[in-house]
What does this fold into?
Amino acid sequence: MRKKVHKWFFAWDFEKEEKWLNEMAAKGWAMVSFHFWLCTYEFEKTEPQKYLYRLEFLEHAPCHPESESYLEFLEETGIEQVGSYMRWVYLRKERALGEFEIFSDYANKIKHLNRLNAMFIPISLLNIGVGIQNVSLGWGMCSVVSPFNFFTGCINLLLGVLLILGMLKILGKTRKLKKEQSIYE
It folds into this structure.
């Protein structure tokens, strides 16, 4: 038996998405695929608590040779890739095979968060730049195009600000990890 669930998460809330996937698995629904553009997760019925899920933002796309090598290594340890979008991969492992943590230390967790933030910087700056340009065009021109420019500019500005808020959230997580790292290491 299969079912589809439409749900959307912000990229910086990947831990919430991971938690939700593990809650679904605890109820006996194993994720088998993910479609970003439709925000759709596909699940199949399985025994409860069979799988543990983790998400990772890779350095390169999953089809890159380094990523392929890394994913093959994970597969050898019993971890399978069940979905991907851009550089995000959805991984799962059977609970019977033991614990499942991708990042074994603080340095790798921090590196992962920094990699995620590095992706947001150019996207947010681009959206803010395009947004400012479109708002100024829409505001300054008395033509039929100006409301469209103004509207799209506002959307770009909103997306840029939203991404900056996400980056700040990730920075907060990074600072917390660095503080814990200094205490325990």
In short: The CA atoms of residues 70 and 181 lie 25 Å apart.
